[in-house]
Design a protein that fits this description.
The complex is a heterodimer of chains A (628) and B (300). Chain A is of the alpha+beta class and 628 residues long. Helices cover 61% and strands 11% of the residues of chain A. Chain A has helices at 2-29, 33-76, 86-89, 91-127, 138-166, 171-196, 201-230, 246-252, 256-269, 277-299, 360-363, 417-422, 427-444, 448-452, 456-473, 499-569, 571-587, 624-627, and strands spanning 303-306, 311-316, 319-326, 329-332, 339-344, 350-354, 356-357, 377-378, 381-384, 401-414, 478-483, 486-489, 591-595. Helices cover 51% and strands 22% of the residues of chain B. The chains are: A alpha+beta (628), B alpha+beta (300).
Chain lengths: 628, 300
Amino acid sequence: MEKNLSKSGATNWVVLLVAGVTLVWLAVQARLVTAAVGSALVLVGFLVSLVSWFQMRLEAREEAERLEIEALGRSRNDSALFSESAAESSPARRAREQFEKWLVPAFTFMLFVLQAFGVWHFYEKLRGEDAAGSETFTPLALAVAAALGFALFLFGRYAARLAQLEASRLLRPSASAVMLGALLAGVTAVTAGLEWAGFPKWDVYLAWVLTALLALVALETLFALVFEIYRPRTRGQAQRVLYESRIVGLLGQSGGLFNTAAQALDYQFGFKVSDTWFYHYLEQTVSGLALFWLGILWLSSCLVIVEPQEQGLHERFGQPTANSILEPGLHFKLPWPIDAAHTFKTRELQSFTVGVVADEKLDAERVLVWTRAHYKEEMPMLVASREQETGGAGGEQAVPVNFITASIPVQFVVRDVKAWAYNQADPAKLLERIATREVVRHFASVDMDKVMSYGRLEAAAELQRGIQKQADALKLGAEIVFVGLQDIHPPMGTKENQVASAYEQVIGAIAQKEAKILEAEGYRAETLPTAGANATKKLNNAQARSAKLTGEAAGRSAQFANQLAAYQAAPKVFLQRTYLDTLTKSLAPSRKLVLGPTNTTDVIQFNLEDKLRQDMTDLYLEDPAKKK
Amino acid sequence: MKKTRLSLVIGALLLVIFLAVLFAFQVRSTEVAVVTTFGKYSASYTEPGLKFRLPWPIQNIYRFDNRLQNFERKFEQTTTRDAKNILVSLFVGWRISDPKIFLERFNGDSLKAEQQLEGLVRNAKNAVIGRYNFSDFISPDPKQVKFEQFEAEALKEIQGAAKDTYGLQVEVVGIKQLGLPEAITGKVFERMRSERERLVKQFTGEGEAKAIEIRSDADRRRDELLAKAEADALRIIGEAEAQASKDYAVFEQKPELAVFLLQIKALKESLKDRATVILDQRTTPFNLLTGDKPAAGTTK
């Protein structure tokens, strides 16, 4: 029997080595990441089985030595003369003890390092991995992996059974490793199959799962190392194989999950936890508890909570009940599957936007201008053109239309939850389509300039009416709360034909026109009052002159009447007196030159210019009387 | 004893549930169901409620949504009766009218049904659009736009074929979007732009014209005002002169005196400023200088 164990142990590490190499080959050839991670796990198993086999050999040698010593002792009659210390007399046992004391922890530590490295390596690799298998190789990979898995399974079953029958703790780890190998080969086969069937992504997913498993095993190894230090030592108890993984052990042992857990607990605490009353109680009641919780879970399906923004529909065997609409609050119903309740967010305001596909990046912009795109996609809508076809530009294909783009948010709530839920498979989508249709319909016969300016509110109201009418006709059960006509504008146009900027230029021209008119009006405002003032001035001047004329005439005529009287009294004297009087008065301030002799041949020269040098004649004598 | 009874109850309950699962099924009010027995059609259920069945694999249940489904696909170019290109996309609302045919034709797959229906819709769309003018879709006169009529006609066209061959009831056909081919779109853009440019010129011209009008009007009114004022001034002065000459009539009583007095006045006026007067001795009263007797006559 011992021989059998040793043989099986040897077979295991050979098989695992072969399996590991095969998986590496598959990983390289078929480019399967799963196979790569699997091969790492298998190679770790190979190391474990190799060491366990070595330990097994040591134990076998010790056993042989013990038998030999026993036989020797019996033949020798127990002579005290030859009694040596046990340690000195049994080198095989010493070797085994030394191996267990030093080499096993060291190996376990090395194992942990290897596993941890494996986890790190695959984590790095998988993060940047994009599923890319070589498709030609996958069918072959599938076949090889499947065959490998099957072979490993057979070996593993045999070794596991043998370990169980012989209660060999040393064969168990390698048996488990072979079983794990079988599983990994199976997973690789499945991956290859999925890749072949067109799901290459699964290779990466499964590789992640296996990496997680590797990480788990690495952690377990670490904990085993740490816990080994604090474990109470009991004499005579067979030592657990330190490098054996309990997780991997689950696969190879017939006892299953519960047993492994119980054994682990027993081993860790040093007494039979699995014999305590609590453990037995748990074991007995766990099924009852599970049932109880399932029952509670089932009964909880009797309760329905409808949130404030919702309404619910109550159905029995799929049929709406008499009072099927559930308002917000707590409601009771028969449990599943007899009754069912569905809730809908009927009171919540829902919305969509017709005409544009929003762009988050552009949404952040605060200023919206016509000449720059502010949505990801704008749906140009056709608008009838009132301008008569001029015929020139388009020829036969010319169509009397313009384009307009607009974003029209539509907000609605569900008014009739039954209609909303039962009449339409996708009512929100249908509503959006109806709304789009109404918008297209509306714009098809609208005046572009009007709708862009003062007709907006009117148009929005009309659209709301139209959408509501259509929604009612299709029994959508929705109520349109708001339809807005936002940023209606001409399309941006193409690079050569920048429509939006042309529209802006028109507005500029209108402003310019206004400016010109205002300027002219300013001129008029200035000119007319000035002219009025000038006219008044002219009249006033004329009137002043007229007053002067008439006044003077009147004065002169009155004076003449008096002078006439004086003249008639003494005509000659009056004339002479008046003459001399005037002459005296008038000549008084003047410079007078009186020429005495009258000689007609004399030429008299006067220089009447002002002179710089004064002479006699320039001397101006002040009137002494005046001076006084 | 108690425990066994509980176990019995639980066991019975589980059995009932198990049997119920095997022998019954629900049809929701949003569904229709088809039952087949060994693959052969046996019944359709269009009413909701709890129904009985034989367990799998004897009977199979297929459930379909019986609500109105809607879809829309291609934005497709077609030609109107007056040979104008237009892009139209329709949306279609349909529901399963005969679940048996639906199962047979489409293996119960709505997506497949919609794909087939799409062909039908395109066909009908192109046929019906060919009967309409471009102006029936887009026209400045709302009464001329015949969306509803077109949709009704297209619906009728699709309905017949869909019902018999596909087991589908098409209930709604609507125009989702209208458009123009790219080349024509470019031309429309061009026209829109040139239209705007024309408006720019028009507005500029209008502004100019209006300004000139206002200015010339202002000028005219100014001139009118001034001319009128001028006329008034002349009239006033004329009147004043008339008045003055009436007053001067008094001079006619003794014209010699009047003339003399005017001369005197003129003399006075002309000597008002600093003047240099050159006189000879013949001038009265300087004739006294020559020793002459004072003349009795006048200077004149």
